[in-house]
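User: Could you check the structure of this?
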Amino acid sequence: MSSNPGTYPPNVIINNQSESDFIREAALPLYQSRGWLKFVGIMMILGGIPSALALVGIIPIWQGVLLMQAASSIETAANTGQRYAFNSAMSNIKTFFVVNGVLMLIGVIVGLLIACLMVVLPLVGISLFSFQDLLNY
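Assistant: Sure, the predicted structure tokens are below.
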């Protein structure tokens, strides 16, 4: 197999028609779910609008736009068999998942730091709240 992604092994002969058919077939699962791509994209855009003033909302808006672009590109790829449209859709989906993964890693790291602080600070005599206050409620 070739070491470059997106290329064919040297012993395989591909003409434009079979490549177009291959792209149509490869695009079919995402083409069938393009409605969900658009729905999730719109919901992410709408969800990011209220928090856009805090600059954090830009990320979900960007992710929503990525999904909308992917849905449009996969529709073009499924209908025409264009390699560029297929690659564009895959690139947008890849970026969407990479951004989600980075955000999840940041969330896990922040959560672990907070959990460590909640355990370590009371051990050294610093408390964020009084345990007596918790017992009174």
